[in-house]
């Protein structure tokens, strides 16, 4: 390794003359949040920044850049019981006192066909502004354990996208099919405003 040469007297004098007006740089004061301005000053590796929590409108704290919390799932519907629908309306539905505006009969369909037909029917009727419809499932035979569609349809009505369109359901009255049919109360869609005239 080569030995460092010491500057001569003339070189040292020249260096003093050149650097006499140079002042030592001052360090930057820390930023208001108390965090260092650069990764080099903080001693952290670049690219590894910590998310800063912030308050949302609802008063909850979440990290910056984090996804907004998903809304809680809708409560499960059961025969004649529904959260968010007044008791009088549910009672009228159970008694068959709400006018039935449309009906679908799922007899003779496979599960897959029935599921598709039910989705199309409910979506179409809700889109048309219907309030109450009847879904005929059949009671099924004892050998089938009470009917595949009879147990599947209430489950499908609790699943998306049907759950977003259904407010309540209940077994029909005996003369409307009894346990082999359901009254289904649909969520009213607000009509789209027409063109201004």
The level-1 CATH class of the domain at 96-186: Alpha Beta
- The helix/strand series, from N terminus to C terminus, equals HHEEHEHEHEE
- Summarize model confidence as the mean pLDDT: 76
- Number of E strands: 6
Whole-number radius of gyration? 36 Å
Kindly report the CATH topology of the domain at 96-186: Ribosomal Protein S8, Chain: A, domain 1
Walk across the major sheet and give the strand order: 3-4-6-5
Provide the fold topology:
Layout: H1 9-19, H2 39-42, E1 53-55, E2 61-63, H3 87-94, E3 102-105, H4 111-127, E4 132-136, H5 148-157, E5 166-171, E6 181-186
Parallel strand pairs: 3-4
Antiparallel strand pairs: 1-2, 4-6, 5-6
In short:
This protein has 197 residues and is α+β, with helices and mostly antiparallel strands.
Main attributes of the structure:
single chain, 197 residues, alpha+beta, Ribosomal Protein S8, Chain: A, domain 1, 4-stranded mixed sheet, two-stranded antiparallel ribbon, 5 helices
Your description of this structure?
With about 200 residues, the protein is of the alpha+beta class. The chain has a domain at about 95-185: Ribosomal Protein S8, Chain: A, domain 1 (2-Layer Sandwich). It is built from five helices and six strands. The strands form two sheets. Strands 3-4-6-5 form a four-stranded mixed beta sheet, with helices on both faces. A hairpin with a 5-residue loop joins β1 and β2 (about 60-65). α4 (about 110-125) packs across α5 (about 150-155).
């Amino acid at each position: 390794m080569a030995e460092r040469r010491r500057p001569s007297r003339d070189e040292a004098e020249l260096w003093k003359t050149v650097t006499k007006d140079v002042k030592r740089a001052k360090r930057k004061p820390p930023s208001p949040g108390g965090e260092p301005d650069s990764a080099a000053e903080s001693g952290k590796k670049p690219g590894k920044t910590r998310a800063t929590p912030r308050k949302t409108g609802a008063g909850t704290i979440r990290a910056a850049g984090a996804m907004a919390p998903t809304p809680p799932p809708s409560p499960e519907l059961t025969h004649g019981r529904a959260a968010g629908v007044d008791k009088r309306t549910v009672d009228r539905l159970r008694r068959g006192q709400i006018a039935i505006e449309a009906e679908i009969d799922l007899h003779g369909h496979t599960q897959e066909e029935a599921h598709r037909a039910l989705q199309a029917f409910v979506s179409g009727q809700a889109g048309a502004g219907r309030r109450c419809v009847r879904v005929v499932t059949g009671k099924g035979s004892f050998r089938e354990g009470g009917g595949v569609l009879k147990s599947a349809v209430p489950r499908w009505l609790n699943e998306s996208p049907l759950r977003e369109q259904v407010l309540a359901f209940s077994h029909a009255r005996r003369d409307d099919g009894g346990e082999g049919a359901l009254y289904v109360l649909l969520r009213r869609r607000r009509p789209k405003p027409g063109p201004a005239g």
